[in-house]
Fold these 2 entries.
Entry 1:
Amino acid sequence: MEKKREVTIYDIAKELNVSPSTVSRALKDHHSIGKKTKKAVLKLAEERGYQPNVIAASLRSNRTNTIGVITPWINRPFISSLISGVEMTANKQGYNVIISQSHDSYENEVANAKALYGSRIEGLIVSLAMESTNYDHFQKFLKKNIPVVFVDRVPDDINTTKVVINNYEAGFKATQHLIEQGCTRIAHIGGVRHRNVYKERMDGYVAALRQYDLTIDDNLIIESDRLSSEEGFRIAKYLLNLPERPDGIFSANDTAAVSLIKYAKSVGVDIPNDVAVIGFNNDPISTIIDPPLSTIIHPAIEMGKLAATQVLNREDQTDIVKSQTIMLDTELIVRESSRRVVIPKESITKA
Amino acid sequence: MEKKREVTIYDIAKELNVSPSTVSRALKDHHSIGKKTKKAVLKLAEERGYQPNVIAASLRSNRTNTIGVITPWINRPFISSLISGVEMTANKQGYNVIISQSHDSYENEVANAKALYGSRIEGLIVSLAMESTNYDHFQKFLKKNIPVVFVDRVPDDINTTKVVINNYEAGFKATQHLIEQGCTRIAHIGGVRHRNVYKERMDGYVAALRQYDLTIDDNLIIESDRLSSEEGFRIAKYLLNLPERPDGIFSANDTAAVSLIKYAKSVGVDIPNDVAVIGFNNDPISTIIDPPLSTIIHPAIEMGKLAATQVLNREDQTDIVKSQTIMLDTELIVRESSRRVVIPKESITKA
DNA sequence: TAAAGCTACGCAATCGATTGTGTTATCAAT
DNA sequence: ATTGATAACACAATCGATTGCGTAGCTTTA
């Protein structure tokens, strides 16, 4: 099988008796090329099925038209939606998106960053691994002025652009909602504290309790490093069997909240009347569980689009604005898992 | 801000008073380079933080170490898991993965294929858009001997490697299971017929009915082009209000099945005793719905890994085996949505 | 009519790594 | 001491596209 050589600008140049540079310029619609020549080049290029060699162009121009993405996993509702958003705007602007996953491991994250750096990506979008507390592996991008945008799970001590949701406010709203439903003993199922999203949701939770003069009971604040379905069951078992059972639970994700509801049902605890529950993320499962789970909406696709926009627009820009945090609002979705028939006390004022 | 030039083999060569070719060979552990020279080169490369320019190497060697993926969407449980699998094996072999989504549109699929072709990918993994019935846009890959592997939603008239599940058998098993539970009037919620997966699931369904001498009623066979949640409701409404209501329903995906169950519950139809239901995919929601949904397991991550393996191993291989279909087995998961207490009639023999 | 200004294009270097083809030492063998 | 073999490296072309600079030819202007 003979290798069919690709058509190059040289082939076209030779055939038209012009120079390769003329062909190159004609193809790029350069002003200094005559109309006739331009037309002839375009025509022949079309005929010969000319495909520009982006690799060669990349080498010369030092641009790859590619951005990279590092996320913990890609097969999770929130993250896959986020990546979907990234792909949409990148695609629209003619950029490729290279993905990689850290599996929540620091080592993988470092390895992925290194690989992407080697691939000469022009921008990087990262949602941090659960494990990561050191962020040096991103410095080489910044030093080379390659924009790095963090999304959702972001570091706090690095000077760059971040796209996040207002986790604090969301945590506050969720908790406040439970309070307004008459809950007074509210537990929180949270993630690891060193990860901004979980810390802030908890902070919001604590702040709400404070604002409404409710006691903060450390026994009701759980820190889980997984927030998986299994963890959800384990935690549910613990919380619902406490001597003084909580009457409201704010979970930092839907997965754990759903497991908790399932467990509650299995032991005859009434949701929402015995215990009101609210989750986080608005995963598909939240609408399926019975009773449907109240939750917080994450604008995942939007976040992806925004992150991509940030990365792409940061390019060849002066570094006046080095750091920036874009904070998106969330929305509280009240469903049956937390909607009580009881009228909240009048003493409670809306914030 | 001064542009820091990257360290090249020329820099290293100059500093060591050797030629760039020697540096290149030393870095690649070529045999014709002396130990001392090799060591010196490696040492200096390390010191200077040399990063090989993959673009330049690509241009010369005509290899990009990149594969492309085109899927309808990426934010769907099955597909994101599939991509996750692709990424894992590609990453392990040092390949990048560029993703793109067709949004189930033929036009997008064509555009994506074109873009990826331009990006000089070395392999392509595709799950077809719902719309696509023409596959010419993949021919240019095949002509250039770039491996194309189709996954799950595959064309039937193209000569290349495919990774699929045994949809026919799965459809058969699902239907047979309903029959064994005593259902005699079984409906099927299917997808568009021109898409292999849906056609085959339906074929399996029909075959099972035939084998057990049940009548095939066209009114009970629905073709939906979305199989969305909304469609599920619409179809549920239709099916459950038929004069002769079906007593079993096999849905080609979980989304529609779950909607159907929800609707059934809302109108007081007992699942599984009035109507037994089975879905397809084992989406997370299938375990959350009450009663839990029986379904068919798709080995999504495995399929992704396999597809990637196929693509990567097909390279620089002679084209002896041009076409190959790898068919994976599925598993029937019986949950409460289809488990009846009734003993199936003795007349029913297992296949 | 000569100087100045365009128009339309060609030349050749460049981006870095790779690789086929030399070219020198060095050493063993006769 | 001469030859052939081998080790260790250098040269230079190559992969295609891009681009700063240069120039021939034609037009315009004083």
Note: Chain B touches chain A through 52 residues (CB under 8 Å).
Entry 2:
Amino acid sequence: MRDERALLERYLRDRGLKMTRARETVLTAFLGLESHVSVEAVIEAARRLDPGVGQATVFRTVKLLVDAGLAREACHDDGTRLFEHAYNHAHHDHLTCIRCGAIVEFIDTDIERAQEAVYRRYGFESSGHRLELYGVCPACAAEDTD
Amino acid sequence: MRDERALLERYLRDRGLKMTRARETVLTAFLGLESHVSVEAVIEAARRLDPGVGQATVFRTVKLLVDAGLAREACHDDGTRLFEHAYNHAHHDHLTCIRCGAIVEFIDTDIERAQEAVYRRYGFESSGHRLELYGVCPACAAEDTD
DNA sequence: GCTCAAATGATAACCCTTATCAATACATCC
DNA sequence: GGATGTATTGATAAGGGTTATCATTTGAGC
Ligand SMILES: [Zn+2]
Ligand SMILES: [Zn+2]
Ligand SMILES: [Zn+2]
Ligand SMILES: [Zn+2]
């Protein structure tokens, strides 16, 4: 939290932008939420801290957080974008339950390595990837057999 | 084309729906396009065949094609959904150039196998996945060095 | 042909996101 | 501390893609 705030302040200062109360509110709200949140969830959380914050400001600030390296866009499959913490939160992929929405974060070195091989095979320079595995989690599968 | 039409007719008949001129137009338009097309592209193609077709109908029909197994939703990263042919078009993943938008379709058995291992590791039942690799294609990379 | 439910197309509504803009808040420099 | 000038804010409107509404038309089966 200290670190994140310092990181944002530095990011802003470096490009002549200002650290404002609204931005502080949005940062605090975002950091207080669990990962994979919509902007709407951030808006609600921010307004619990300060009811007057405008939604346009939250959209703008979340974009700032992404640029500053504090947030990262995660899976967005239904038209709504989701964001997760990016600071001290290494790259990972997602395994999502199509029933209950549970999300498992995982990193698999075999997959990562094989992806690198695909880049080489086609002569592409890598600039990131998005991998979402969909399935039914153990809990939901157990309900099926009841 | 014969097969696809028969497939759609059967799908419709099986659930009391009707094969209409508009649906035939949309099917023909979609099949005549190369893969990874937006609904808007299908609308344009359909209206070249029959200017009177409504856009709502195209949206509805594309959804039907997906349900019937003739189309599949592909990558949609900017808010616009893309669709590709699904009949006689096996599963594959995508390698996309972030400069020119070129798309390479690939299938990598190592990746597929490693994904199965992830499902087993977390006890999930697999129901499909989406893998998009992003990078810079050889042509665009060559431009950079000019 | 007749009948009735399904389908159409024009339009409005919807959701998420971005642009506009006058009013305000911030950092810097006296 | 106070003035200055730009960045930021929040309310609102606009935007793009998609879906809902609904009177009218079309299709399949009898
Ligand atoms: Zn579940
Ligand atoms: Zn995550
Ligand atoms: Zn390229
Ligand atoms: Zn494809």
Note: Residues 18-22, 38-40, 55-56, 59-60, 79-81 of chain B lie near DNA strand D (CB under 10 Å from a C1').
